[in-house]
Amino acid sequence: TSIQVMVANRGEIAIRVFRACTELGIRTVAVYSEQDTQHMHRQKADESYLIGKGLAPVDAYLHIPEIIATAKEVGVDAIHPGYGFLSERSDFAQACVDAGIKFIGPSPGIVQKMGDKVAARQIAIAAGVPVIPGTDEPVTSLDEAEAFVQKYGFPVIFKAAYGGGGRGMRFVNNMAELGDNFNRAVSEAEKAFGESMFIERYLEGPRHIEVQILGDKAGNIVHLYERDCSIQRRYQKLVELAPAFNLPIGLRRILADDALKIAKYVGYQNAGTVEFLLDPQGRHYFIEVNSRLQVEHTITEQITGVDLVQSQIRLAEGYTLPELGLGQEQIQVNGCAIQCRVTTEDPAHDFRPDTGRIEVRNVCFASAFAGAIISPHYDSLLVKVISHAADMPSAARKMHRALREFRIRGVKTNIPFLLNVIQNDTFLHGTITTQFIDNNPQLFQMQPSQNRAGRLMYYLAEVMVNGPSTPLPTTSKPPYFEPELPPLFAESPTNAPTGWRNLLLEGGPEEFARAIREHKGLLLTDTTMRDAHQSLLATRVRTYDLERIAPFVSHHLNGLLSIENWGGATFDVAMRFLHECPWSRLRALRELIPNIPFQMLLRGANGVGYTTYPDNVVRKFCELAVRNGMDIFRVFDSMNYLPNLQLGMEAVGDAGGVIEGAISYTGDVSDPTRVTKYDLKYYLELADELVKIGTHILCIKDMAGLLKPQAAKILVGEIRERHPDIPIHVHTHDTSGAGVASMLAAAEAGADIVDGAIDSMSGMTSQPSIGALVTSCERTPHDTGTNILLCEQTPCNYWEQARHLYAPFECTVTMKSGDSSVFKHEIPGGQYTNLHFQAHSMGLGNQFFKIKDKYIEANKLFGDLVKVTPSSKVVGDMAQFMVQNDLSADDVLERADELSLPQSVIDMMKGLIGYPPGGFPEPLRSKVGRPGASMPPVDFDSLKQELVEEHGNSITEEDVMSAAMYPKVTGDFLRHHAQYGPVDKLDTPRFLIGPKIADEFKVTLEPGKTLHIKPLAIGDLKPETGEREVFMELNGQIRTILVKDKEAMKEMQFHPKATPGVKGSVGCPMPGDILEVKVKVGDEVTKGEPLLVVSAMKMELVVAATMDGTVKSVAVQKAPWRVMTSWWR
Fold first, then answer.
1. Where's the Lipoyl-binding domain (predicted)?
2. Which end of the chain is more exposed for a tag (fewer CB within 10 A), N or C?
3. Is 603 known as a binding-site position?
4. Which homologous superfamily is 132-444 in?
């Protein structure tokens, strides 16, 4: 009958022993707990048996009677204990012997002597080996611990009398910490080992060196040289080396001799490790003997060529060391080996253990296989990586390569930290001590794993299961295609033809403005990349589609004065709905179009937001915008409020940008019968002020398309006469259909630049057609010099196709034509589109005329405003409020004190977006003043620290600025990016509605890195979790992604979770058992104060308050309660 060996353990050590047995022709038997039903180790054995049914996860592997009974029942000949659990329990070794089963390890008596650290200490003294000052007997009370420190002083360390792996070990530096650390250490030791504590003096900055030994029944003892285990965290080893680096030869011999002294003194048999500490003076002290196999035994095997596990088995069978060919002279060192312990811990958060499901891997050892569940019940070790080479630097290089090849997704690991260790100069060339990690804080400056492919597939799976992540206002769906592009003939940013930006960079803003005035012919600004799609497609055009056409624009439309592509609503919408960074868009387009100036909208003191910000926010924003590639800033204020305009203009000037001060136009200067405060005199005086402040270009911003041709002639002509040297730029919307005529009239009157859009993105609420403007100016003094074919064909065709991709947002779904009544209601182009959408989505499409009428009334209530974002939004909010509540203007005036007006109205009345000429009429009048001037400046450093605390160290200056203007939107965007990755790299149809089954497509992350993705199937609903499994193929490999079905989740009940982004909502960092709840509802707590103690992965974690406050609710109780997720508020 063949021999059978059981491993009374789990995980990678069980598999290691099984492999050794298989090589020796021995059958293997595994035991497993209920929680390890799907674990790899039970599948690697010839037979496997469930133990500990109904017991706690750890207790199952500590249940000696059942393990022995199972072994006897299946006819096991020997049991290997592995490490941890029962490996150093003498009662288990004795139970094996009593049952007639060989224990693969030392005899029960030796296990008992060596496992008791107090007894082992006495043995070392008797053998003549130096020891650290410590207690001779176990410490059973806090009084005894206090007596010891009074005699020997601090620092000290508590250790479990039986144990290892750092559990039950607590470092104490002063009397105030003694009591709590004693209690925690006792609790951990009792939970893991069921035994008591001892205490010893703590050595500062020692090296931790251990010597591997083997002994046989005949009394032969050999050593297999030493290992350096100094790189530790929480007294648990992370990286080990063999042999120890930079260890003097004489000291190496002394350590080996002392290890053999202790082993011979007790008659040691089988494998063991004698551990020492070396102080900075080179003195060594015995600390303990581990009477078992060590986790790091692998590197000793590498340098000696001795299989320690097979040696253990053969020694247990009765072989002697000489029979195994293991004389001391035969054991030699060959090269250097390094072992790294890859754990499911997050080094960025104090090595917090992580749990979850491994989604992908490039290894298949122990726990690390795709689909493996990493539970909180056991040690966090995932896999061990061993490198072996001729010398230490070579072994380190090999280890670095191996770690970089790892792809483990679904759980966090310490691999980024290990990579920093392996490359550290002290590690490679110096002497490492147990304080190596503390002394090298740069180790925590890690390059986090990007996992871009995994996160993108999670996003796609989420959309496939739960629908679009961006709300789609209509039922139209985008087709699965990409607009065709013309051949570019190797065109790149490096060979782009000269454009107006070259002149700007060479001469600066003043010279740039002078060149514009000297230019013959009409200059054009193309709004296709911003205002055009804001007006026609709800600002939803993505960077992906802008980047594709950008090289053509750079090379063939280089005569454009500028491209409007940033600011205004694009900033908010990019993050809120498109889940992409507006700053990244700006940088990407700048790289592709280096030769044409970029232009943006700056809402004066409102920046790119909808309220007033502290002055330093606006100034810093302009500085960053210029740094990221912006050139021309069209600075406007929705009410032409000069103090707000001046702040924006000064901020642009200080940042080095081109100032384009804008007059926001409303009314009709060509109608002498119209009684209005917005007459010609008003605009001319405002123009004078903007010139006085220092504008480089003067803009007439006609956001509603109210500038009739005759009005354009009058206004532009008068300004030109008063300011002959200032370039004039005119912007309008084509809502009425008169846009082209008005721009031609402006040009005749002296305008230098007008705005237009590529033909297929022009008209209606967008800008006039560039093609029409170019054609109309041909062979006139205003000839644009632009090749009409380049405007009409390629970009026009591209955008005509691209509009189909944005079918859900297409304005023509509800709006079929322009509207000349705009001269009456004065609704701006982009807002007109949005209001039209909203009316139809609420079933009020046939009553849109009512909203237009109420818009007129609301505008009069506010004293006749210039309707430009954000004032136009306020008027629109008020109009809808009046329609919904069936209110007339008289009703509002009569009931102003009792009505719950929209918040935007209230904010405007406070002056948060400025003041109209003459202020607001009663009863809506407010005090006049510029709020931003009196607002305290934003502390950018503090804001960055807050963002870093929540979102990690990758926060940039641009992220901080986004958060200063849009705190909630930015937080949501950063969380979305962390969860789903660079979704801006997806093509538009798949971003919006997800891919189809069996639809293979490509995603280019960066040049040279392309993903091939193919969705395969969506699984059935899992009723116990509310999840669906989505199957995909990534680069030819099958991946599975679990996604919560949000519709199904509505019918399910789950334990409450912490709310992301809410600082006072505190979640447990990982699942575990609640040992102690330290607060109750109503308690006042301060930041950092302990809330509860959780036991997880054999460690006790203290969950602390994240801020000062009062406890509102507690969603957990003391054990047997288990916390499975975030839970606290």
1. 1057-1129
2. N
3. yes
4. ATP-grasp fold, B domain (3.30.470.20)
- Is residue 113 a known part of a binding site? no
Amino acid occupying residue 694? G
User: Using H for helix, E for strand and C for coil, what is the string for 1050-1107?
Assistant: CCCCCCCCCCCCCCCCCCCCCCEEEEEECCCCCCEECCCCEEEEEEECCEEEEEECCC
Mean pLDDT by 10 residues, the chain (1129 residues): 88 94 96 90 93 92 96 96 93 96 96 87 94 81 86 81 59 85 76 65 90 97 97 89 95 97 96 94 92 95 97 96 96 96 84 73 57 73 92 95 86 90 93 92 83 92 94 88 76 83 97 96 96 92 95 92 91 94 97 96 90 91 97 93 94 97 93 85 96 97 92 97 97 92 96 95 92 93 82 78 92 73 72 67 66 80 76 79 78 72 76 72 46 78 93 92 94 94 96 95 94 94 89 90 87 70 75 79 87 66 82 77 40
Active-site positions?
A: 292
Backbone Cα Rg of the chain: 37
Residue 515, CB half-sphere, CA atoms under 13 Å: how many?
A: 15
Asked whether 61 and 42 are in contact (CB, 8 A), the reply is no
Residue 614 neighbours by CB distance under 10 Å: 19
H-helix or E-strand containing 851? Answer: helix 848-861
The model's pTM: 0.75
DSSP of 781-817? TT-----HHHHHSHHHHHHHHHHHHTGGG-GGGT--S
Terminal CA-CA length for the chain: 62
CATH superfamily label, 821-910: Conserved carboxylase domain (1.10.472.90)
Q: Is 701 annotated as a binding residue?
A: yes
Which CATH code, of 3.40.1000.70, 3.20.20.70, 3.10.310.10, 3.40.50.2300, is assigned to 500-666+679-812? Answer: 3.20.20.70
Neighbours of 662 (CB within 10 A): 29
Task: Round to whole Å and give the CA distance between 94 and 712.
Answer: 102
- Cross-strand pairs, 271: 214
Other residues' Cβ atoms within 10 Å of the Cβ of residue 894: 13
Contact 684, 722 (CB under 8 A): yes
Check whether 117 is labelled as a binding-site residue: yes
Task: Return d(Cα 660, Cα 639) in angstroms, integer.
Answer: 17
Q: Residue 73 annotated as binding?
A: no
β-pairing verdict for 598-602 and 47-50: unpaired
List the CATH code of the domain at 1058-1123.
Answer: 2.40.50.100
Element at 907 (helix H, strand E):
helix 903-909
| CA 867/CA 738 separation, integer angstroms | 19
Structure tokens at 555: 């090379």
The Cα–Cα gap between 30 and 22 comes to 13
Which residue(s) pair with 212 in the sheet? 273
